[in-house]
Fold this sequence. Notes:
Elements: H1 3-11, H2 15-26, H3 29-52, H4 71-83, E1 88-92, H5 98-109, E2 115-118, H6 128-131, E3 148-151, H7 162-172, E4 176-180, H8 193-206, E5 211-215, E6 234-238, E7 252-256, H9 258-268, H10 284-314, E8 318-320, E9 332-335, H11 339-351, E10 373-377, E11 389-393, E12 399-403, H12 408-424
Parallel strand pairs: 2-3, 2-4, 4-5, 5-6
Antiparallel strand pairs: 1-7, 6-7, 8-9, 9-12, 10-11, 11-12
Amino acid sequence: MGKEDFLKTAFGVSVETLNIIKDAEKSLSAQFSHIEEIAELGSFKVMKAFADNKVSSECFVASSGYGTDDFGRDTLDKVYAEVFEAEDALVRHNFISGTHTLSTMLFAVLRPGDTFAAITGKPYDTLEEVIGITGKRGGGSLADFGINYIEIDLLPNSEPDYEAIKTALTENNLKAVWIQRSKGYADRKTFSSSQIGEMTEFIKGISPETLVLVDNCYGEFVDEKEPTAYGADLIGGSLIKNAGASIAQTGGYIAGKKELIELCANRLSSVGIGRENGATLGLNKSLYQGFFFAPHIVSQALKTATLCAAVFEKLGYETVPSSKEVRHDIVQAIKLKTPDALTAFCRGIQKGSPIDAYVTPVPSYMPGYSDDVIMAAGAFNQGSSIELSADGPMRPPYSVYMQGGVTYESAKLGIIMAVQEMKDKGII
Length: 428
């Protein structure tokens, strides 16, 4: 039985659906070639950093208790710093999520009375309570500690509002600016590392002491370089996204200026301990191996996102980015226009997942989000965004945000099933 016959028999996929996928895939050779070039460069960088820092089986030895003098933990920090062209890095399984990692960055460098500004519009939903934009007062947000927040929207063309940024820098003595690389639950474009570099240069030209902090989630190994290579003071992300390649079971990283990394280490543990302690409990190997595989796995996710965009453009939907654009993160947004379409898409992705394929996603409340969210996620690591997943808030324009795919072949099935589910429901 051939591939197409198997899909028809085993998954109930129609000939029409298969033709839509096939036609879209034929148009993507140039995009796939670019993605593969970036993946090769990223892999070469990781290999060089492993060799330069003498990564060996000794790095995988587990530590317990205080974890004093954990050689593997400390070497991994050096590997990340070299690949990301940063002075230093802090890579720990103790970071429980991207939000925790980014929150650590903010609390580490900001002090009562400081003011910081988000210059790419409202930050990702789960940071709203961290900052104090939403949620009850007294819960320990930045606002509760007397830290002031300014939000500067992007211009209608999704470019930074440099006049407003200049005004904020000159009138408010900003301690830091916050840049979100990926789009989050927004319709705007994702920023490349070089574009973040342009923002950084502009900010430093006006206020050299203002810190540039970057939410780098979903962006690692998508460009040739990370924002730290262009002058960003700190970047951070989750290891169950790009940098962990679905092999790291948990964790996060922060990379950037050495003195700021020390502050982050103090915040994660305590002042006086910093990065000197912290048992790794046998998890080092998975963190190293995840970073080793990350450039390739990210390329698989990028190919998946590009195919998804091409398919849904053929079906008449607006996609961000389009299938022809150069990508700067692994997230694919599609404006599905109706709650039924959003629900059907996510249910199709779930049916095409390796884990929990039998589960039917429904919209529900999720901590940290202001709207009900529907989420499809059949992942080996719970909540992993480098593994194929799709989610979206139940609000107009009912956009779905699909990301991940550790193998192009398996993730392609998710897209096939999403199209088929929408066809079966009479949506397309």
